[in-house]
């Protein structure tokens, strides 16, 4: 498993930032590892999405279930170059991105480049 946390100080009102990060299909505008995020299905606050990642190759696509939370969004990647959780949340004056994933074995040699 690979786990890491990235924190960024933000000077954006909390409500505005939450509305931005909850626009699932807009993720490629902000998270440059995503080329495309397409909603396949939804039920309430849970979305089934297909993700096309920014790198080339046979492992550049995956699927995830995305849940809207009180403080952000939680991605549960179930198919693709990695599996596991990516949580994006709005804290007090900061945006927090938490990852807890398992890389596909073919990506292990280039782990440092992927993460």
Structure write-up:
With 115 residues, the chain is mainly beta. It has one domain (2-114): START domain (Alpha-D-Glucose-1,6-Bisphosphate, Chain A, domain 4, 2-Layer Sandwich). The protein contains three helices and seven strands; from the N terminus they run E-H-H-E-E-E-E-E-E-H. It has helices at 14-21, 27-30, 111-114, and strands at residues 2-9, 34-43, 46-53, 61-69, 72-79, 82-91, 94-103. The protein has a seven-stranded antiparallel β-sheet with strand order 1-7-6-5-4-3-2. The model has no long low-confidence stretch (mean pLDDT 90).
H/E element order: EHHEEEEEEH
Instruction: Write down the Rg.
Output: 14 Å
- Strand % is over 45%
The beta-strand count equals 7
Shape: globular
What is the CATH C-level name? Alpha Beta
Number of helices: 3
How many angstroms separate the termini?
A: 12 Å
CATH architecture: 2-Layer Sandwich
Uncertain residue ranges = none
What would the CATH topology be? Answer: Alpha-D-Glucose-1,6-Bisphosphate, Chain A, domain 4
Helical amount among residues, as a percent range? 10-25%
Class by helix and strand content?
A: mainly beta
A few lines on this structure:
The chain has helices at residues 14-21, 27-30, 111-114, and strands at 2-9, 34-43, 46-53, 61-69, 72-79, 82-91, 94-103. The chain is mainly β.
Topology readout:
Layout: E1 2-9, H1 14-21, H2 27-30, E2 34-43, E3 46-53, E4 61-69, E5 72-79, E6 82-91, E7 94-103, H3 111-114
Antiparallel strand pairs: 1-7, 2-3, 3-4, 4-5, 5-6, 6-7
Question: What structural keywords apply?
Answer:
115 residues, Alpha-D-Glucose-1,6-Bisphosphate, Chain A, domain 4, 7 strands, 14% helix
């Amino acid at each position: 498993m690979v786990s890491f946390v990235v924190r960024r100080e933000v000077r954006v009102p909390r409500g505005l930032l939450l509305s931005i990060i909850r626009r699932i299909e807009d993720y490629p505008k902000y998270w440059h590892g995503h080329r495309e995020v397409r909603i396949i299905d939804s039920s309430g606050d849970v979305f089934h999405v297909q993700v096309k990642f920014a790198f080339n190759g046979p492992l550049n696509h995956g699927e995830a279930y995305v849940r809207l939370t009180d403080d952000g969004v939680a991605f549960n990647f179930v198919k693709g170059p990695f599996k596991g959780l990516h949580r994006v949340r709005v804290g007090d004056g900061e945006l927090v991105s938490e990852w807890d994933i398992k890389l596909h074995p073919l990506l292990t040699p280039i782990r440092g480049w992927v993460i």
